[in-house]
Amino acid sequence: MIETKDIKEFGKQIGIDQIRITTAEPFDQALAGFQSQRKKGLFTERRHRHFENIEQFYNVHLRFPAARSIIATCQGYLTDEKTDLSQPGNPHGLIARYTWRNHYQGLKKKLKKLGDFIHKQSGASFHAYSNGPVAEKPIAVRSGIGYYGKHSVIINKNFGSWIVLGEILTDIELEPDKQLDIDCGQCQDCINACPTHAIVAPYIIDRNRCIQELTNWVGILPDDIARVWGKRLYGCTVCQDVCPKNSKVAMRSPREDPGYVGPSISLAAILDMAEEEYRERYMNNQITARWINFSAIKRNALVCLGNIGDKKFLPVLERFKKSDDNIYAMTAQWAINRIANGSV
Q: Which residue, 31, 69, 67, 60, is CA-closest to 132?
């Protein structure tokens, strides 16, 4: 047999920041919450990976019938690096901090090592995931890895919301840890700071207005959202940036660089890049995952140029204005008008 303390100790040795244990029971309440939000139209119409198997997503027994325990983990990713690599004449579009490198890939490799250790010690079967086909946030909450912030991101006591999650499903029964008895109290900083007012109520996100969601949505952005988009090429972390719990998290140097992209990418380079080159250059990072639409990334770059307001890039925008792609053409026209009106 293997004991929980052995699992946690080995996980610490191989660099997993925190490990907690929970049961493999279905997450019925989380499923009901998801279904309620979907009925209210709070999701965009883009194809989400888990929509087709949503019951399986919230019930690990449908994926792994023998599962008896879930080993929940997290990895902190707050590093002491520059947040923008722009240079004069070469503005960059910002990449959300969690995807500067592929922390999911790094954590999953560690989880497989941990799973192999458990198997050798106990004969247990396991499945290891990070950013995978199971309900990671509810797992994190029930295990005590963290609690929901009002921005719907998981907050860990040591690493704030600057974490990626991962888990091991196993067919051995382990003593579960307790859920944390913590919440955000009266704080509403994330709600007040959201540039598009996408946090419509505590823990409820209207993804039709969430910049994080819209960076991978293909369509023409409403003017009120485009104007506050700033220079984001992929993702948004405003709600995390303002969280008081995150202000106390210590930065550290990067420990590994799987799928490194960095904090920003040249907008001119993106707009000149073919999709094949984009996917090859940033291989192994989630910004080139199969569900990421390169057309949305290019549209984001056009919006960024409009918000930066540098007339030097008007010829680039004029070129996209003539595109056969209506989204590119209309977004480029929006950016041209924004620069011409001096409203940046």
A: 60
| Per-residue exposure over 254-263, b if at least 16 CB sit within 10 Å of its own CB, e if not | eeeeebebbb
What's 273's DSSP letter? -
Rounded to an integer, what distance in angstroms lies between the CA atom of residue 114 and that of residue 127?
11
State residue 49's pLDDT score: 57
Measured CA angle at 236 (ends 50, 253), to 5 deg: 100
List, in order, residues 6 or more apart from 242 with CB less than 8 Å away: 189, 190, 193
Instruction: Say which residue the tokens 């019938």 belong to.
Output: 65
**Span 217-249, pLDDT tens digits:** 999 999 999 999 999 999 999 999 999 999 999
What letter represents residue 272's amino acid? Answer: D
User: Tell me, what's the pLDDT at 147?
Assistant: 98
Residue closest to 169 by CA, chosen among 297, 13, 26, 323: 26
Asked whether the predicted pLDDT for residue 50 surpasses 80, the reply is: no
Q: Cβ of 339: how many Cβ atoms within 10 Å? A: 20
CA-wise closest residue to 43 among 213, 201, 200, 202: 213
- Model confidence at 177: pLDDT above 60: yes
Which tokens is 67 given?
């599962």
As a whole number of angstroms, the distance between CA 185 and CA 149 comes to 10
> Domain locations in the chain?
4-79+101-170, 189-340
Global pTM value: 0.95
pLDDT at 164 over 90: yes
